[in-house]
Amino acid sequence: MTLAEGPVTLRPIRQRDQKAWREVNRRNRDWLRPWEATIPPPTPSGPVVQRPTYRQMVRHLRSEANAGRMLPFVIEYEGRLVGQLTVAGITWGSMCSGHVGYWVDEAVAGRGVMPTAVAMATDHCFRTVGLHRVEVCIRPENGPSRRVVEKLGFREEGLRPRYLHIDGGWRDHLVYALTAEEVPDGLLSRWRRRRQERRNTA
User: Fold this and answer.
1) Model confidence over 151-169: pLDDT tens digits?
2) 71: Cβ–Cβ under 8 A, 6 or more apart, which residues?
3) Which class would CATH give 3-201?
């Protein structure tokens, strides 16, 4: 599934994206490191486990996608790979929920790329996949990421202490969420309206 809105595109991640993905990730190492998930050591005094290779990561993402537990996308802006967005932890049954994680090239931050990508992914989850709830969990210190979901109108639901292992330690996260009933006309439509209102008042 490929989703597009203006210059922003979401499409499935591929093995042949390796060169472009590595180049963007390398340039943004310092920008991304404080917010990236890490794997905790098997013992309290042991070293942090190394990140998987790109090929290992893509194989894992595809396996989870085939099992119906994940939707792994890359983000393109004006035809160039600039980031990644993954809907993970997809749960069915009485919950029908998933959570969104994302990162973007600092060079295109502030251009509406990430809010547009999150809005498209959320609409896809609600309208096509059939989820009822979408969460985004963000470290309180991550102001740019929090602004993405706040611009889109996600509700802040509270703090999850020591929720995820990030940058070598267990970190608190704020929970933001939306349910399908809260955006009956679609989140992308809401985002378009808000952007137009800001332009009109600028």
Assistant:
1) 999 999 999 999 999 988 9
2) 1, 65, 86, 87, 90, 98, 121, 124, 125, 129
3) alpha beta
